[in-house]
Amino acid sequence: MAIISCGSLSSLTPLNTLLSSSSSSTSLFSGKLDKHLNSISFERNNGKMKILNCSASDNGSIPDPMNHSRQPYMSRNLSPFNFTSVEGDISNQSYRWRRVLLKVSGEALAGDQAQNIDPKVTMSIAREVASVTRLGVEFLIFQVAIVVGGGNIFRGSTWAGCSGLDRSSADYIGMLATVMNAIFLQATMESLGIPTRVQTAFRMSEVAEPYIRRRAVRHLEKGRVVIFAAGTGNPFFTTDTAAALRCAEINAEVVLKATNVDGVFDADPRRNPNACLLDSLSYNDVMSRDLSVMDMTAITLCQENNIPVVVFNLNKPGNISKAIKGERVGTLIGATWNSTTANV
């Protein structure tokens, strides 16, 4: 890329001539120049280009490149010139979420239960995540983190007490099961060209990174998908609690809980054919009615940190991308679809 700097007014080269004669300047100034630039002049001196005068039609100042404040959404908008490389600026579209955490249970990964992990399910998840992350590749519109369960391989609470196995040891085995699922999901995503990192709650440096909050956030800012494995790293805590915890730590805006049902119903739909799907709920509704959405620790953590939860059906094509984009799907807990205000 050519070096652009300020210089004196001499040996002016017209913009069109300069762009046509330099491939590097063409890539730098790709977009619709005529809509945003009033005038621009260049100087060519010993093979180097210097910008002499430049004015824009839009008001505003160029962002300070040294200002690296951590925000859930980091735009690459080159204000005030607003250069775009595609027709239509997708960064101007309104999306409810920018950084999301997707919780995928182990049972959902098992699919039809014929085997521990159904490759069709992991591929379906990877394709839908790819569809939204590639949509935001120019402007980093969506940043996606994932927490996976391990119930399809081993559930600690079920095996505790068997053959002298205490609950803590059983839970640690369950954490290892989540790592297996995470590595499988990572391989599937990277086969589609999605840069993915796995971070574990305890060190397994040969197969994954250790969980470091700042490193996880940096991966997200670079457009990578981060998969959190091994739960919280502590026994007696579920992966739902791990999802709520990681969501709060990385400043994600919502927990998207992918399940095998369409959302939260007022009764068990398998027993009552007249059960109605609930559009939204408060945190207190979930706790007072003892709804089996997430465990109480996870719900309480979400409530204390004003983190909404979306419960939706993983098995319906398009639901993951809809949930990530903030479109109406399933049941919303802790907020309403028409407002981002927390609903306690």
TrEMBL record:
Enzyme class label: transferase
Pfam annotation, one family: AA_kinase
Pathway(s) the chain acts in: Pyrimidine metabolism; CTP biosynthesis via de novo pathway; UDP from UMP (UMPK route): step 1/1
Keywords assigned by UniProt, alphabetized: ATP-binding, Kinase, Nucleotide-binding, Pyrimidine biosynthesis, Transferase
Superkingdom of this protein's organism: Eukaryota
Biological processes per GO annotation: 'de novo' CTP biosynthetic process; UDP biosynthetic process
Gene3D superfamilies with a match to the protein in the record: Acetylglutamate kinase-like
InterPro entries membership: AceGlu_kinase-like_sf, Asp/Glu/Uridylate_kinase, Uridylate_kinase_bac
Keyword ATP-binding attached: yes
UniProt EC number: 2.7.4.22
A GO CC annotation given for this chain: cytoplasm
GO molecular function: ATP binding; UMP kinase activity
Domain Aspartate/glutamate/uridylate kinase: 99-313
Similarity field: Belongs to the UMP kinase family.
Protein name (Swiss-Prot/TrEMBL): UMP kinase
Taxonomic path: Eukaryota, Viridiplantae, Streptophyta, Embryophyta, Tracheophyta
